[in-house]
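User: Let's play a game. I give you a shape written as tokens, and you guess the letters that built it. Ready? Here's round one.
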């Protein structure tokens, strides 16, 4: 199967800006400075973004439209736009931090009970679940956006990185004040991590076409809620323009 996102579904997800217009209060305002920003890439591992791993075969068989939207956006938007952002952060030698999710204990007791329940329910349907063993292929970041030597990879056992990794201390050690966030899935691990970062005082920019939710509705609602109260949402072009305006001149 070669999943392709439905054009109407993609357009629907873009309506988050219209929904944001319904918000009656002032919106978050800030400009990111590349000199104090880091790129955060969430769960771009085989078990989460490869249609042949994790819940991919189950979704393709039972929910083909959902699979087409989700995996199509991963391939056509999330990966190429993350690559573009990676190029800028690496060129300017700014921190790149990767998140993965995976269990270590054989009984998965080091992970959330609710996640184990979902995983077990999927297995009862003869389907792969969202949980993968740490160090397995499912826990390995896909090669298109794979980390380079010297880039941090933090494995979490919860939805949000601030709840099960030392990310907060690491970012503060690095002098990071702003985060550019990409990855999957917008409504779950991306949103939880981004919300928690905002609550800890980081300026967070969520890149709308470098992340995806499972459905257009969840993408739209996640982006609108985040942009209303927690940070800013921009597309890749807008994010790159803002970052390049604060990057040092080539001979500066």
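Assistant: Ready! My guess for every position:
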């Amino acid at each position: 199967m070669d999943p392709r996102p439905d054009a109407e579904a993609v357009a629907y997800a873009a309506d988050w800006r219209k929904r944001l217009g319904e918000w009656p209060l002032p919106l978050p305002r800030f400009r990111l400075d590349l000199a104090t920003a880091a790129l955060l890439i969430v769960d771009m591992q085989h078990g989460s973004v490869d249609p042949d791993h994790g819940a991919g075969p189950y979704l393709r068989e039972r929910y083909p439209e959902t699979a087409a939207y989700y995996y199509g956006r991963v391939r056509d938007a999330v990966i190429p736009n993350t690559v573009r952002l990676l190029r800028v952060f690496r060129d300017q030698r700014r921190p790149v931090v990767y998140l993965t999710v995976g269990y270590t204990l054989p009984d998965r007791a080091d992970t959330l009970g609710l996640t184990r329940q979902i995983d077990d329910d999927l297995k009862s349907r003869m389907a792969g679940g969202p949980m993968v063993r740490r160090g397995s292929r499912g826990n390995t970041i896909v090669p298109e956006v794979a980390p380079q030597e010297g880039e941090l990879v933090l494995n979490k056992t919860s939805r949000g990185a601030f709840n099960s990794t030392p990310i907060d201390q690491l970012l503060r050690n690095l002098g990071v004040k702003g985060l550019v966030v990409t990855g999957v899935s917008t409504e779950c691990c991306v949103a939880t991590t981004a919300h928690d970062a905002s609550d800890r005082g980081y300026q967070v920019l969520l890149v709308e076409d470098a992340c995806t939710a499972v459905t257009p509705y969840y993408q739209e609602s996640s982006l609108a809620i985040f942009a209303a109260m927690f940070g800013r949402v921009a597309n890749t072009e807008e994010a790159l323009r803002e970052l390049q305006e604060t990057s040092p001149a080539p001979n500066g």
